[in-house]
Fold this protein.
Amino acid sequence: MHIALGVRTAQFPIDNFLGASGKTDATISAAADRERTQVGELAFSGNPKRRGGEWRIRDQYSNRHPAWASTAGFPTTYDASDPPYVLVFKSGKSFHARFSLESSLRKMSPASRPKGILSNNIGIAIAPHEFVNSLLVPQTSRLDEFEIQRDATVAEEFDPKNISDGRKRIIASVIRRLGQQTFRRKLISAYSGQCALTCCKTPWVLEAAHISPYRGIKTNAVSNGLLLRADVHTLFDLALVAIEPTKLVVRVSKLLEGSMYEALDGKHPVLPAKAALHPSVAALEYHYGLFHP
């Protein structure tokens, strides 16, 4: 079974939505739940010879996406009086699959559902926050925000005449990355000079990581920090590595599967000897809420 989507038009820019401009096919990974524990691939294709270039989602008979399976509540028989609407959301660079029955859509106020969804069942539109939240679609993740900003950054041209400026920039970058020195010194003392997750003791790569974002001097409390190796700090900031607050165990995103960081999953962090210096549960809960499973 294939799901027909329609021909690309200015009102239905399907190839732009998929990031496949100029192409006739695209495969994406779309999560079926908020925690991204169920992820399936969706293969899209546009056939120039079929109805003027109609796009469709392939392989939904033999390889049904978990969001549209009977176990997820998707109807096993088609009811023309209350048909299911197949929905694909794009949040940042992440995709999410959901469905909704027409009866559920009609119960929503016009302002809380995508414009024109009931009058034209094929289209692309901005989804109101109420609609997104009702279907438990997560907002843009830290990783998405990072990649969007990275792609929007215009690379600076290298000027070999400014080698001295380049050296200064490198040194300044290292100093900034080490963090505010007082905060870092406190964390080095509390964690006995070793990374909380890897036990690395090389001082030049140990950084002061904020658990919840820096918002003034009060957030420089040891209980809002972790001493982390530089690479792990980056992954922690992107919420690809986190500490589960209830069990105090390290969790590693599936996006890092196959990497050396996978070995950290399930381990207990090495915390300060003094309980008063342990990470704040509230701060860990905040960060874990951003974790990209």
User: Anything to note?
Assistant: Strands lie at 3-7, 25-31, 39-47, 54-58, 84-91, 94-101, 206-210, 225-229, 241-244, 249-252. Residues 246 and 277 are 17 Å apart (CA to CA).
